[in-house]
Amino acid sequence: GPPFTHQQTPRKMVYYGQTSCEQDTERYLDVVKYVFSSYKKEVPLVVNTMGWVKGEGLLLLIDIIRLLSPSHIVQMDVYDWKAMAPLTPEYVHLTPGLYTKGKQQAKCKQMGTSGAEHWKPSEAGGDASAPEYKLLYVHPEFPRAGVAGEARVHSSILRDMSILGYLGQLQSPDIGAVLPLHSLVPYQVPFNAVALRVIHTDVAPSNIMYAVNASWVGLCRIPDEIRCQTDGPVLLTQTPVCDCLGFGIVRGVEMEKKLYHILTPVPPENLRLVNCLLLGNIAIPNCVLVGQQGVEGEIPYVTSDYNYSI
Fold first, then answer.
1. How many CA atoms lie within 13 A of 55 on its CB side?
2. How many Å apart are CA 167 and CA 263, to the nearest integer?
3. How far apart (Å, rounded) are the C-alpha atoms in residues 47 and 133?
4. How far is CA 64 from CA 23, 32, 100, 111, 303, in A?
């Protein structure tokens, strides 16, 4: 079945916090480097690259190929679409990436009757040797194969299904009905026990709790010890590249007792390692909030009293 039906705990994971890396390609590369550094080459590794292969996306893909040094590349083309050249070793060797340089070809200039004057390739431009890998080029022959607008299921739906599959671990297998959020018992986390960071945008400290409440967060571990002279919250000034141990929903924020109420299927032995909450641009599926059963009056976290002119 599709991936959301058989989710597994990854060996190494970083919460990027956005559905596209277009706004922060540098951090995306840092994340790839961090995760790849844990690969010990004890088993073959298959890297499923993203589908952004136009403009800067193609340049970023070239950077990733240089970074990972694969032994094989499988390139799947689209019928009657010639926008992307075959990623041959020579092409990757010569083409500049978004952050890396390509190897310049040797140039020659005619000098009248005295012959040719040669310029050697710049030593600063790229690696000294061309990458060595085998390109497996797949080119379908049937019309409209792989056209993005005709996909059976859009990526946003698959993403929601992955989140729902993950949250399904919160449900008890002994109960037939699905329990809504307000029926699940959350963990209580003191403000000063975890650091907090919003990844995708700048949020004023006075508004940070409004952003965190009822949000999807990455449960992460940073190497630095959390030190706070007050009872919190602890706000990070930069987004760390660190291990993510799982995900959760901030079900509520209790300002009087300085507590986060977090729902998560992460086991307690791993939760003891969590000291950082990262909030990204990943939304909880609407059905989780709107479809809460057994609620009289207003549904928690849901309101129709909203001014769209703001």
1. 3
2. 9
3. 14
4. 17, 8, 10, 40, 43
- 156-290 homologous superfamily: Pre-mRNA cleavage complex subunit Clp1, C-terminal domain (2.40.30.330)
Q: Encoding tokens for residue 170?
A: 């919160």
In one-letter notation, the amino acid at residue 191 is: F
What is the value of pTM for the model shown? 0.84
Going from the C-alpha of 283 to that of each of 183, 214, 222, the distances in angstroms are 21, 10, 23
Beta pairing class for 107-110 and 134-138? unpaired
Question: Rounded mean pLDDT of 48-55?
Answer: 89
**Residues 6 or more apart whose Cβ sits within 8 Å of residue 278:** 15, 17, 197, 199, 217, 218, 220, 239, 240, 244
Judging by DSSP bridges, how do beta strands 107-110 and 116-119 pair with one another?
antiparallel
Residues of the chain with CATH 2.40.30.330: 156-290
Q: Does residue 149 or residue 87 have the better pLDDT?
A: 87
Pairwise CA distance, residues 83 & 264, whole Å = 43
